[in-house]
Design brief:
- This protein is α/β, with parallel strands linked by helices.
- It has one domain: Alpha/Beta hydrolase fold, catalytic domain (Rossmann fold), CATH 3.40.50.1820.
- The longest helix is centred in the middle third of the chain and has 18 residues, at 80-97.
- The protein has helices at 35-41, 58-61, 80-97, 112-120, 142-148, 175-187, 206-219; strands at residues 2-6, 9-15, 21-28, 48-55, 105-110, 129-133, 155-161, 192-198.
- 32% of the residues lie in helices and 23% in strands.
- Strands 1-2-4-3-5-6-7-8 form an 8-stranded mixed sheet, with helices on both faces.
- Helix 1 crosses helix 7 (206-219).
Length: 227
């Protein structure tokens, strides 16, 4: 494992940089999931290099456009385009610096990072596959946006906890309906779509859910499926 800093952001590398597949995983630097444990559970580790990207401001950097806070006083700043530009710049630099020949780059995230992953795939074809686990698709106007902006990735994995719609917050409680809408929108596109429901609420089994999502991307090869 090695951490490098590029343009004031930390990128932690797990695995061989000569791997055939690279996986960008967005993590909250103030409260990171155990990405090392997730990486260890992935099969074919010798073929995968995980790049854990430290997110400084979770609600600010991952939100695609500004929106008022739905809990607390921290509004959503809508700086996703800035972060995406940074990721694109890092990948260009990283490929040149490490003489990376592979173009197999995946993007994965949980919660608001899952929303960012879906939004980012509407902006660029940089990411070959995307995993959006328990994504915050309840975000203001996101379903409408996705309906009007096709994605450019080849495969998408989606999952949601079967109790997430029981959230006390009114906006977050719409996640189940929004999730179903996202599935229907993506089913109309020429991509490999995988989706499933996991037991529990939003905060349950985060590492397990992420591992399942990443593993599904690595194994994805063809037709749409419901695991």
């Amino acid at each position: 494992m090695k951490t490098i800093e590029y343009q004031n952001r930390k990128y932690t590398l797990l695995g061989d940089t000569q791997a055939s597949t690279f996986l960008m995983y967005l993590v909250d630097e103030s409260n990171p999931e155990d990405y090392k444990q997730i990486f260890q559970k992935i099969s074919h580790q010798n073929q995968v290099c995980m790049i854990a990207v430290a997110i400084h401001d979770w609600q600010g950097e991952l939100s695609p456009w500004s929106a008022p806070a739905i809990f607390g006083k921290h509004d959503f700043a809508g700086n996703a385009s800035v972060l995406l530009s940074e990721l694109e710049s890092f990948w260009d630099w990283f490929q040149c610096e490490r003489q990376i020949e592979s173009d197999h780059l995946y993007l994965c995230g949980y919660s608001l990072a899952g929303l960012f992953a879906l939004w980012a795939s509407c902006q660029t074809n940089l990411f070959e596959k995307v995993a959006a686990v328990s994504p915050s698709v309840w975000y203001m106007s996101f379903v409408d946006y996705l309906e009007q902006h096709p994605i450019y990735t080849n495969a998408v994995y989606l999952s949601l906890g079967d109790r997430e719609s029981n959230a006390k917050n009114k906006a977050m409680a719409t996640v189940g309906t929004c999730f179903e809408s996202v599935i229907k929108i993506l089913q109309k596109q020429n991509i490999h779509l995988m989706y499933e429901y996991n037991p529990g609420n939003h905060f349950q089994d985060v590492e397990l859910r992420m591992t399942k999502g990443i593993q599904s991307l690595l194994l994805a090869s063809g037709k749409e499926e419901e695991p």
